[in-house]
Design goal:
alpha/beta, six-stranded mixed β-sheet, five-stranded mixed β-sheet, 15 strands, globular
């Protein structure tokens, strides 16, 4: 059964219409803050493992007999709906919840947790925020979430904490929140992971600007262009550019609406089929290896130290882990296992200068890269942000090498949090 079928199994659209409208008409219970919730990581894990999310959602509704839900439970329900691809209803419900409560805590928190972590997040889909609860799923941490929405005044003071993590990932919609947080951060007296002014650098064009000219790094040229400007340019590229180029609507990911454009006729045809207002246009870079295969790596930097999280291999330039056929090809998995086993001794030293430049130029404590290695030995950076999911959910029978590697990433991040909390205790 594929992932989409697993997420939607057991849920009926008629049940949705009957249940969600009643809930949206009701009031979310005004519980004392912070309101307990399961949290996105455990819900994502349940969906990935094949849990009947529709039955779970209906069970939550059936327990809200008087029309009220605790705020944290209602927020969990919104996350379940997102996992079931009911985005409009999910975001409506999320908006309703956040109109009553902005402060939440994980149900899995333990009273004896030594380190209090405040994660500042915002409204949106599953890519709007860093999935911190995957990284800090450990009884030594107490996680609380504070939502800040566009137009909000940032609370002053913040809820009590030892370390604050800016979980708001970059997007055009999140820019106002990040700018407000950047202004407020000067008043904070506790350590901050991923200062908001640095998260603002992680747009596609911002990363290209930040890393421009860095030794050992290739970042394809990228421009952000309104559709009207493209249409009136009749396919003329900026000086120094050449076809093919890549085009995609701004704020899209995972190859959605991404196309390689061979010439002005292709560009016109693409725009005729698209109604986005603004696009990224990127110079295409052929990163195929000598064997004709493309290899894209996801690498996490924790305080500048790189960790390989996965390597996808495909015979096509548009590659991400889910379309690379890794589960069906043992040779690809063997190559990924070898890349992980040798990463610290081979890949990381080859690109030590590049990783140092990325860390220094972005200023981010935690950053995820989607990248490749060029034939001339440089690091080719496609994307860098703070919101990608880093997890240990892949089946152990197929990927026995991945869970130990991911736990190294989690441990490094947890140590970074503990170190900051200890130094300011």
């Amino acid at each position: 059964m594929n992932a989409t079928a697993q997420l939607c199994r057991g849920f009926d659209r008629d049940e949705q219409a009957a249940g969600w409208s009643d809930l949206m008409a009701s009031s979310v219970s005004r519980e004392a803050v912070p309101s307990p919730m399961i949290g996105p990581a455990r819900l994502i894990r349940a969906a990935f493992e094949g849990t009947d999310m529709g039955a779970w959602a209906n069970d939550i509704l059936s327990r809200a007999g008087d029309g009220d839900l605790e705020a944290g439970t209602a927020l969990d329900l919104a996350t379940i709906l997102l996992l079931m691809h009911r985005s409009d209803t999910a975001l409506q419900l999320q908006n309703e919840v956040l109109g009553h409560c902005r402060h939440f805590q994980l149900q899995s928190n333990t009273p004896e947790a030594a380190t209090r972590v405040l994660v500042i997040v915002t409204a949106g889909d599953l890519m709007a925020n860093t999935p911190v609860d995957f990284l800090l799923d450990d009884p030594g941490f107490r996680l609380e979430y504070l939502f800040v929405l566009p137009g909000d005044n940032v609370p002053d003071p913040l809820p009590a904490h030892d370390v604050c993590i800016i979980g708001v990932a970059y997007s055009t919609a999140n820019e106002p929140v990040l700018e407000a947080l950047a202004s407020a951060a000067s008043r904070w007296d506790r350590p901050v992971i991923n200062h908001p002014r640095n998260v603002l650098k992680t747009s596609r064009h911002g990363i290209a600007e930040a890393l421009d000219g860095a030794e050992g790094i290739v970042v394809p040229s990228v421009i952000r262009v309104p559709q009207a400007a493209i249409a009136t340019a009749t396919g003329v590229l900026p000086d120094g550019w050449s076809y093919p180029v890549l085009i995609r609507p701004i704020d899209t990911h995972a190859g959605n609406a991404l196309r390689k454009i061979a010439g002005s006729d292709d560009l016109t045809a693409y725009l005729d089929r698209s109604d986005a207002e603004t696009y990224y246009v990127t110079q295409f870079y052929d990163y195929s290896g000598s064997d004709g295969l493309f290899r894209k790596l996801r690498i996490v930097l924790v305080d500048g130290v790189p960790f390989l999280c996965h390597m996808a291999i495909r015979d096509h330039w548009m590659i991400h882990y889910l379309n690379a056929g890794m589960s069906e090809d043992s040779a690809k998995r063997n190559a990924e296992a070898e890349a992980m086993a040798t990463f610290d001794d081979q890949f990381a030293p080859r690109h030590r200068t590049a990783f140092a430049a990325i860390h220094n130029r972005t200023g981010l404590d935690y950053l995820i890269l989607d990248c490749a290695e060029t034939r001339d030995g440089r690091l080719l950076v496609f994307e860098a942000d703070t919101g990608m999911v880093i997890h240990d959910m892949d089946p152990v029978n197929l990927y026995p090498y991945k869970r130990p590697q991911m736990h190294r990433v989690f441990a490094a991040f947890q140590n970074a949090i503990r170190m900051r909390a200890t130094h300011t205790a």
